[in-house]
Amino acid sequence: MQILLCDSPDHVGRRAADVIEARLRQGPAVLGLATGGSPRTTYKELIRRHQEEQLSFAQATAFTLDEYAGLPPSHEQSYYSTIRREFVDHVDLPLERLITPNGDAPDLVAEANRYDSAISAAGGVDVQVLGIGANGHIGFNEPTSSLDSRTRVKTLTRTTREDNARFFADGQVPRLCLTEGLGTIRDAKLAVLVAMGENKAEAVRLMVEGPVSANCPASVLQMHRHAIIILDPQAAAQLSSLEYYREAQEFNDDLSLRARSAG
Ligand code: PGA
Question: What is the pLDDT of residues 224-252, one digit of tens each?
Fold first, then answer.
């Protein structure tokens, strides 16, 4: 795991945008997009780079991580509508290449299988953006999710429904969802998890320094070939090896600067 310590949520967004931009500049990319508060500064920065620096998503494909079951894509709280509102409608990603699980499909099991097949058919995800829940979930993989799970129907925990109730006018959050599994997420070539705020600090500590455990689903990233964890000071506050992460970060920044000037 590569831990990047940042000064603020905006700084987190810039570092995450750097990683995504670097991949986009290499050619057609398959992006994995998370919804929620955490990636907002990342999307804001990517939109700015699109508008001011011609960063283009025209050759990219994007898969979202999860979706509420029972909501049609047109519902304003569906993750399809949310990712359009918060990111996709502000850049040049072609809408036909924004792919989301259909939470309104008549057969959710078949829809989950179709989704995993669509990701494979696209060549797999190149860069997966992730947030982390206060209970350690990634996507909607709640604690006790199998570390090898694929896209499937899950029951949301009461905590997650309470956390998200603020987005629903009637406070009624669906009980079921479709989510990429921890195995699906682990297949992404690069995972970029962004976290900010003190209510994420314990989950971040368990993810980075705790045991790999289905009780903290994000800890599966310890088994990922290249996971970058980007944190603001509050989210990083409970880590015990901060000094080491800082040193490694300086060393890596130095190496990448040297590589760029050599290139
Ligand atoms: P948040 O949620 O980014 O809105 O804090 C993260 C998550 O629940 O996965």
Answer: 999 999 999 999 999 999 999 999 988 87
Q: Cα(33) to centroid of ligand 1, in Å?
A: 12
Please report which helix (H) or strand (E) contains residue 236, including its range. Answer: helix 233-236
Residues of the chain with pLDDT under 70: 254-263
We find that the CATH architecture of domain 2-262 is 3-Layer(aba) Sandwich (3.40)
Q: Where are the domains of the chain?
A: 2-262
pLDDT digits (tens, 9 = 90+) for 84-115: 999 999 999 999 999 999 999 999 999 999 99
Which residue's CA is the closest to the ligand 1 atom numbered 8?
Answer: 133
Which of 226, 183, 222 has its CA nearest to residue 204? Answer: 222
Query: Letter for the amino acid at 162?
Result: E
Distance from the CA of 253 to the center of ligand 1, in angstroms?
28
CA quadruple 106, 108, 114, 119: dihedral sign: positive
Look up residue 160 and give its two tokens. Answer: 């997650």
Residue to mutate, 35, 86, 132, ligand 1, most ligand atoms under 8 Å from C-beta: 132
Q: Which residues line ligand 1 (CB under 6 A)?
A: 36-38, 131-133, 137
User: What's the predicted TM-score (pTM) here?
Assistant: 0.94
